[in-house]
Amino acid sequence: MPVLGLLSTLAAQTARFTVTDLGPSDNPFSQAAGLDDFGMITGVATAADGSQHAVIWLNGVMTDIGKPGLGGPNSSGGGVNLFGQVIGAAETSLKDPNNENFCGFGTGLQCVPFTWRNGAGMTALPTLGGPNAAFGGINNVGQVAGYAENANRDPACTGKVAVNGTGPQVLDFQAVIWGPKAGQIQVLSPLPGDTVAMANWINDHGQAVGTSGTCANTVVGFGEEGPHAVLWESNGSVHDLGNLGGTVNTGVLAAGTEAWSINNRGVVTGQSVLPGNLTFHPFLWSRETGMLDLGVLPGDLVGAGLAMNNNNQVVGASVSAPGLATGNPRAFLWQSGVMADLNSLIPADSPLYLMTAFAINDAGQIAGFGVTGSGDVHGFLATPATSEIGEYIDTFASKAPARPAVLSENARKAVMQKTFTRGR
Questions:
Q1: What is the tens place of the pLDDT at every residue in 116-149?
Q2: Distances (CA, A) of 409 to 56, 242, 326, 381
Q3: Is 423 within the bounds of a domain?
Q4: Which CATH number fits the domain that encloses residue 234?
């Protein structure tokens, strides 16, 4: 069939994905944060006592892996590799001596990343001498990217609670890679002149990406932000990926310039602040093109590229005005220069309105969270209706379906905290 005829045929087909509500149906909040190519999904769900627990979904069954956890009440799952190694964050039973609320659970407990596999329980990952640390991503070699506190009390820290509710931050933190052997931890240096950094993802070649800044202009936790998107080569050398005209605004939730994902081709996605430091857009970076602005969905204000696969498909969230704290996010899929509202690619009777996409595997499956008709937030899995990646390239609908997301108050709070954070 000629190309124009193929595009016309594809444009007439409205459903590109089927959507599975990961539920559970009686749960007010769950979120899918990562998935592998074999159908295992990681995330978080509300437990019976109201705490949040790391969970996995496999073959439609959700399993709570947050018990017994690391001693504290709350945990979350954030990623999984092809060998079933799961990463996430969990509170311990120890009080944080600085009460930094590092993971945003608000309990005053220390919080560290963990690995989990095959029901063996959580294994805590070490810090750099401070009480807290956070995960970013895991590769198929078993290396985990993230960031960890050291014992340096930095006078440059603002001493105030951050716009996302974490802090006040007291200690410096550095980007790190844990593993692949037990107990291994490698520090990734920030850019020259910077003092802190966070690593958000790592590919199978050992290249990591994240953000670099100072304690004064870098915010940890959900809605994290920093001034410089960076890439660390496998030898640890750090490179500034540039920006879209701005740097960071710690007074606006998630208004930072940082890289969220890198695939095995070395292509990077993330978000960058625009001139004026008030809004931010998703970007795509490669060595050949530098940083490209992917824009946002029509009528929206801000957005971020939160994950990508080895086919250079990018997913994330695009948010309407007036901004992340009060606007409605829409999950998007970007491919070959075209951004689509994921809600325009699913059947009209789908169980969820898809709000944020956190993960996409090489089969094109997408995971994230959406809102039910009753206003609860649930994790979702969107599965392509065709195995041919090329058949996604069509005249994507430019407008979201007329299905406004009506959120309960608890759901809106969860959405505000979880968008642009990928499971933390």
A1: 999 889 999 999 999 999 999 999 999 999 999 9
A2: 26, 38, 12, 24
A3: no
A4: 2.130.10.150
